[in-house]
Amino acid sequence: MTIIPTPLAGCLVIQPRVFNDGRGYFFESFNRKRFAELTGFDIDFVQDNQSYSTKGVLRGLHLQKGEFSQAKLVRVTKGEVLDVAVDLRSGSPTYGQYHSVLLTEENNQQFFIPRGFGHGFIVLSDEAVFQYKCDNYYNKEAESGVHYADPDLNINWQADITEVLVSDKDLELPFLKNAPDFGF
Ligand SMILES: Cc1cn([C@H]2C[C@H](O)[C@@H](COP(=O)(O)OP(=O)(O)O[C@H]3O[C@H](C)C(=O)[C@H](O)[C@H]3O)O2)c(=O)[nH]c1=O
């Protein structure tokens, strides 16, 4: 496993070691001890999620507020997505900045996003299966987020965002300047 830091403190790209042979491939998709040794983060993930989306679907930017915030370890097991994390930690020197990572079933890359971030992705392939681990349980009442097209964030989604398929809930998310205190 190789850890690639990003300009956002705590956000890490993980490249697992893939073992290829005549049958196909094998890799450890998560190893708590190894992850802790290499990143310094000993994360007790409590919930695994999976979503399926078609091309042009954009999910995000989502978060759970305050004590219900979730660190996530995300990956793609089918297709290709551009994954985006936005730093919403008050006092962070990179507050309001984002980092994007191309996650594909070919590169097997994973993206670790600590608590205090908004998270979303856009599907670039015909279809995508998105799988991720969370270190806190889903809490509907704590759900919030920021609008994916926030001009101040100016996220390059690497796609024509006039053609995206977004949930009504996500379309109603505020720009960051109008957002409530997320408690981060
Ligand atoms: C997140 C979640 C949702 N649900 C239920 C609630 C809804 O009835 C249904 C679809 O939920 P939603 O439209 O919020 O799903 P996404 O738009 O994929 O949301 C996720 O997408 C972005 C990228 C994230 O990072 C978050 O983990 C999460 O917000 O699943 C659950 O039962 N448990 C859960 O943990």
TrEMBL record:
Q: Which reaction does it catalyse?
A: dTDP-4-dehydro-6-deoxy-alpha-D-glucose = dTDP-4-dehydro-beta-L-rhamnose
Lineage of origin: Bacteria, Pseudomonadati, Bacteroidota, Sphingobacteriia, Sphingobacteriales
Q: Which CDD domains match?
A: cupin_RmlC
Task: Write out the catalytic residues in the record.
Answer: 62 (proton acceptor), 132 (proton donor)
Q: Which GO terms describe its cellular component?
A: cytosol
Transmembrane stretches, start-end: none
This protein's assembly is summarised as: Homodimer.
Q: Does the keyword Isomerase apply?
A: yes
The record's Pfam families line, in alphabetical order, gives: dTDP_sugar_isom (PF00908)
Name of this chain's protein: dTDP-4-dehydrorhamnose 3,5-epimerase
Under NCBIfam families, the record lists: rmlC (TIGR01221)
Swiss-Prot/TrEMBL keywords:
Isomerase
Q: Site annotated as Participates in a stacking interaction with the thymidine ring of dTDP-4-oxo-6-deoxyglucose: where?
A: 138
Q: What is its EC number?
A: 5.1.3.13
BP term (GO), one? dTDP-rhamnose biosynthetic process
